[in-house]
Design brief:
The chain is an all-alpha fold and 317 residues long. Helix content is 74%, strand content 3%.
């Protein structure tokens, strides 16, 4: 049993003898072989408790409990090499929790430690994963240039992994989509578009239609930010066509995404001066959002009003 008031781990003997006390949080404490199962259970309990707390919106408490998990795994790692992987995972997750409470500099530092720990144990797959998480922490801290640099490293790591195992291409493509977003926010628009096109190419080659549509929508936004609304509209048109096909195979699943794609395509067609071509897409967006609003009163109000305004602005007279 762990006592948080004095930070001691108590183990009651099965034969009813006196409890053993383990000063596991002190600097000179090194777990004994007999301590390891209980220490591992304790560390896992801290980590699981932190996840429960953050899922309940109690992020500050989650941070403190996750720090306890980290400390417990560090104690274990001093005598049990496999626990270093737990240390690394706990660090990456701790960075996420710190970011949620606005402790961004700490989140980035902890995230960097997670990357370093995975690299030290030679776990290249999780180095790539940790780099993607580090990029997110930088972005959340309002540091898009650093986010883009970390994300480039994540893409490069997944590219190496994908060369040996094509299954990693999907993760690489996802990293490229986020790289495009970070570059966009850093004002590096042409590089962002290149990253977005690379992601689209991977998903297209793999015939991954849901993710291809998602990547095309992101590419449309990148092209819009780069001052190329016509090309952005073309990307959204293809995304819309894919969502239409997917909706026919799995009715209802992709309908909200189809509505969004139709609206985005119409808006960019207008920005590109192709008003007549925009009317059909805007009309579809209105019809779908009105359908959603009828099925769920009180929802989709803003989307419906925006789509109607766009459609009505395109009607003659």
């Amino acid at each position: 049993m762990f006592r948080p008031d004095n930070r001691k781990l108590y183990t009651t003997r099965a034969d009813g003898g006196p409890a053993a006390v383990h000063y596991w949080r002190t600097a000179d404490y090194v777990p004994r072989a007999t301590d390891l199962p209980r220490m591992h259970l304790l560390a896992n309990t801290f980590r699981q408790r932190a996840a429960v707390l953050t899922n309940a919106g109690r992020h500050a408490e989650a941070v403190e409990v996750q720090f306890q998990a980290r400390d417990a795994y560090l104690q274990l790692a001093a005598v049990s090499a496999p626990a270093r992987r737990d240390v690394a995972q706990t660090l990456v997750t701790l960075g996420m929790y710190l970011s949620r409470v606005g402790r961004h500099d700490e989140a980035i530092t902890i995230g960097q430690e997670g990357v370093a720990e995975y690299r030290a144990i030679g776990d290249e797959e999780h180095v790539a994963w940790a780099l993607g998480n580090l990029a997110a922490r930088c972005y959340e801290a309002g540091r898009p240039e650093e986010a883009a640099e970390a994300q480039r490293r994540a893409v490069a790591a997944y590219r190496v992994l994908a060369a040996a195992n094509p299954a990693f291409e999907t993760e690489m493509a996802k990293m490229l989509v986020f790289l495009g977003m970070y570059l966009q926010h850093a004002g590096r628009h042409e590089e962002a578009v290149t990253a977005g096109r690379d992601a689209v190419a991977v998903y297209r080659r793999r015939e991954d239609l849901p993710n291809l549509a998602w990547a095309l929508g992101n590419l449309g936004a990148l092209l819009q930010s780069a001052g190329r609304p016509g090309a952005g509209a073309d990307a959204w048109r293809e995304a819309r066509d894919i969502y239409q096909r997917l909706e026919a195979t799995v009715p209802g699943t992709y309908r909200p995404l189809l509505a969004m794609a139709a609206y985005r395509q119409a808006a960019l067609l207008v920005a590109d001066g192709r008003r007549e071509a925009a009317l059909a897409a805007a009309g579809q967006a209105v019809a779908l959002y009105e359908e959603f609003g009828a099925a769920s009163p009180g929802k989709y109000i803003a989307e419906t009003e925006a789509a109607r305004k766009l459609r009505d602005s395109l009607r003659p007279g």
